[in-house]
């Protein structure tokens, strides 16, 4: 299993909306994530900075990248773009984190 971690941001005043949109995520998006080998996906919030820390375990890097090409993922990005910083393709602005320590 490959551990992935990355950070994103929520726009000011949009934390409640961000939470609501994830309760729950769309069933077709959940299916895409699971069918592409994603497990133990969590997103945590640091309230004072509105910074999001995301963690997921993935079976394969290629499958992880393919998620971005799926219709549910593209629609989700478009749906979320009004409450968080996004790139031109509507994907969330995020920065991958480098793992420096792990304990099983």
Give an account of the 3D structure.
The protein is of the alpha+beta class and 104 residues long. It has a 4-stranded antiparallel beta sheet. The longest helix has 10 residues. It is globular and about 35 Å long.
Write a concise synopsis of the structure shown.
The chain has 104 residues and is an alpha+beta fold. 31% of the residues lie in helices and 26% in strands.
Q: What key attributes describe this structure?
A:
about 100 residues, alpha+beta, Alpha-Beta Plaits, four-stranded antiparallel β-sheet, 4 helices, cytoplasm, EC 5.1.3.32
Gyration radius, in Å: 14 Å
Sheet with the most strands: spatial strand order: 2-3-1-4
Largest sheet: 4 strands, antiparallel
| Number of separate strands | 4
Low-confidence stretches: none
Give the count of helical stretches. Answer: 4
Q: Which class in CATH terms?
A: Alpha Beta
Helix content: 25-40%
Structural class: alpha+beta
CATH architecture name: 2-Layer Sandwich
CATH third-level topology: Alpha-Beta Plaits
Total domain modules: 1
